[in-house]
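To: structure subgroup
Subject: Chain for Friday's discussion

All,

I'm putting the inputs and outputs inline so they're searchable in the archive.
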Amino acid sequence: MDIKTVLNNLCFAKMYTLIKNLLFLLPAEKAHYLTMRLFRWFIALPGTERLFEIESKPFTKDGLTFRNKVGLAAGFDKDGKFLQQIDYLDFGFMEIGTVTPKPQSGNPKPRLFRLPQDHALINRMGFNNDGVNALIKRLSKYRKNNRASNMLIGINIGKNKLTPNNEAVNDYTFCYKKLYDLGDFFVVNVSSPNTPGLRELQNKDELRKIISALLEIRSHMDRQKPLYLKIAPDLNEGQLDEIISLQEELQFEGIVATNTSIDRDTLEFTKARKVNDIGDGGLSGRPILEASNRFVQHIRSKSNMTIIGVGGIEDAEGGKSKFDAGADLIEIYTGFIYSGPGIVKKLVQMSEAQA
């Protein structure tokens, strides 16, 4: 890396810090959408592409070729509105969603909260999204206009809030069928803490119904696209072992470990009063790094399945710890918000050095 590149990266990092400090004065959800709109303008400026260029070796897993091992987790772009910007940042892959069959507004605002001292977020978004049909239109347009893009797109699917658990399989199969041709891979989300009763679907019998139904649909498709399951970091070891055994039984491709946590004991610096005032929601960011790593390590100790590690990664050291625990690929979200776009290049370079 030449000195000019180093200086450009330093200037960009300082600029992001300044912008972040200003955006953190706004409510978190409003700042999120404003940031992506500003970025849409920024990448139109001449020469900005040099700030995000990443040299990396392709990585093949489950029949897919990832341009690098670093992805963007579900929740950041629920409706596929910012695909162009995310591709520009040179993520190897990303997850759209969580998408549900019908549009839903999610939980009342405010529902996204920053805990800056802990480099964390608490969210109780509640699967707010425009629904399957809106995503089909948006993603179809993107695919048509960006045929040269080699960023893989996964689709994270869930159930509507008003769908009872005994009918949940219908929501998952509906999303899967409608979106199958548009996704490179799919992720089953039964682990968000923000839809009442959803986590009950993580028990082995309920999971078997959902995943078996999806695999049956896939068996009739010309192309067998990978299917992953996203799990919560709050499962006990017995529950985790049941999911591992279910993967061995059904042979879906792997697990995304992990989603957000309802545990607040890992917070070190945020005052208890502030946490109590925020209330319910899933905790993400630095405080869940170790819990997520333990899950990845436990799964790897018992299986050769694909593991996408997510949770608490905010720098190269955190990403390395996830790979060391046994992850094949990693995703970021909260760390991306706190550390800025430059974290993508650092993580890719770290993963390349490890290979």
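Points worth raising on Friday:
Residues 1-8 have pLDDT under 50 and may be disordered.
The two ends are 19 Å apart (CA to CA).

D.
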